[in-house]
Design goal:
This protein is mainly alpha-helical. It has a single domain (3-79), classed as Non-ribosomal Peptide Synthetase Peptidyl Carrier Protein, Chain A (Orthogonal Bundle), CATH 1.10.1200. The protein has helices at residues 3-15, 39-51, 68-79. The model has no long low-confidence stretch (mean pLDDT 95).
Length: 81
Amino acid sequence: MTAQGFLLECIADSWLDGNSEGLSADTPLMELNIISSAEVFDLVHAIQEEFGISIPLQEVRPDNFRSIAVIADLIDRFRGK
């Protein structure tokens, strides 16, 4: 599964009652209150489990979690290490 595919499914299942309608790679997640800053840590845990990567705490900041596309880029950066 691609990073974006995983994120779409995970966010829809966890915070949108399984409904991904209207959710796209560029949807501003925190701006639209789809996920809160506290819930980002739940998402980080799910990402780390799914992809077997470790995301350093200093990378867990709002600008790295503003959209699915940005989060997928973050995942790809750490998958490449």
